[in-house]
Amino acid sequence: MAIAWTVRTIRRRHCYPPTWKRWVFYLCPGTLIAFSAVGLYAFVETEENYFYIHSIWHMLIAGSVGFLLPPRPKPDGKVTPLPRRKGCGYQLCVNEHEEMGLVDPGTVSINSICTS
To answer: Per the omega criterion (within 30 degrees of 0), is the bond before 70 cis?
Structure first.
């Protein structure tokens, strides 16, 4: 995370994050969540509640990373349409005997209706 922030600061040539909104809505909550996870790990976790507290610790750390990662770069305005596919790329085959539940292993035939 520190590497991502450093790279972003070098590319933009000013300190990251530049706005107070980023601090208030992302960095402060992310830091608070991370410190609460460390507090749970350090002071609350015991052998009896290890599985519960450790699971909560994982959720808190994952949530804090979501807050602390920098946002995606904005698109440069060159939006290209996605290539369209014709059809869905597979065939749906229906065996009439299977649909009615009349399949007998000795008399199975390959009479099926295929549609695309």
So the answer is: no
Q: Are 23 and 33 in contact (CB under 8 A)?
A: no
Strand ranges, E, within the chain: 92-95, 112-115
**What secondary structure letter does DSSP report for 13?**
T
pLDDT at 100 over 90: no
Tens-place pLDDT, residues 46-98: 999 999 999 999 999 999 999 988 777 777 766 666 666 666 656 656 555 55
pTM: 0.54
User: Which residue bears the tokens 């749906």?
Assistant: 92
- Classify 35 in phi/psi space as left (phi over 0), alpha (psi -120 to 50) or beta: alpha
How far, in Å, CA of 60 to CA of 73, rounded?
A: 25
In DSSP terms, which residues pair with 113 in a beta bridge? 94
